[in-house]
Give the backbone structure.
Amino acid sequence: MVQLHVVRAANAALVKSQPIVAVFVGGTSGIGEYTLRALAGVHSDSGKGLRLYIVGRKAAAAETIISDCQRICPAGQFKFMQADDLALLKDVDLVCEKIVQSEEAESQADQKPRIDLLVMSQACSIFGQRKETKEGLDTLMSLMYYSRMRFINRLLPLLLNSVLPTRIVSIYAAGTEGKLLPNDLSLRDPAHYSYLQARSHITYMTTLFMETLAEQHCGKLSLSHVFPGLVITPAFQSPDIPTWFRLLWRVFGGLIARLYALAPAECGDRILFLSSPRFLAKQAGEAVGSDLQKDTATGAGAEIATGTDGIPGSGAYSVNWNGETISVQKSYRKIDRKDISKLVWTHTTGAFEEIEAGRVFTS
């Protein structure tokens, strides 16, 4: 486990390094909210500047969050970007367009419009059968995978302008790879669909898509998929959750939370820690190996995180709640990694192209 004092020292060093521009998708509630509050809190009066975009549906919740953040971080800029339904890629595109326009308006003569940190936590209920959007994607898989990769795709010019490099974080279920059905990646066959199968496909595709991005943009992007652990969020009270679960949670939830849950503040700190120097962008033509990198937060050597391909510093990371990377090599030895990676890329970008053209995706 990465100790909490190391986490917090690294976060403090981040905001003292340069002004930060961050985007939080799903930031009006839950883990996204906890993380943006952590960023505002660590910045406070000592950071070099903060501009933060909050993407979500709930305007009232965003107003409360912005008011709180402005009180603890008066030097920061906090902007709400409302979205109707982030399971729809057309809505993702509209939000991205607004962010790009805002960033271009904010940019100075000596600074390109940029994004230094992109954190995505949009989600929905995990219960029930496949529910297809009007664009042809399963709602769960769209929120957890397709829409998240679309945010990266549409914001890529700004992400590549960061000098940190940019950190990209997807919060979901890192390390839960199970069975993979290459001939039905979107689980269109009802016989293939279940929550566990969807989770497995989302995890495989997230890893492989992120690895491709890290390879394409060496030195520019550090991409992490993180399992946040048990964190008690308002989602536990959602009306979309079945009655039986809510009854069980009412009886046993308090005990489970006391024994196993991560406090919201610590969760936010640990997610923000994925912006630390130990999660390197892939270096072109170099093998980082097991070298130590100088940790600017503590002044001591810090081990570089091992990527999803088993190589330290390879740019794409599967991370546990405690800041340690998850070894996923056993799962990927079961598949033809190179061919499946190409398949995932073609499948995902094909979905983007079909939906952008106004057609329903059917593959």
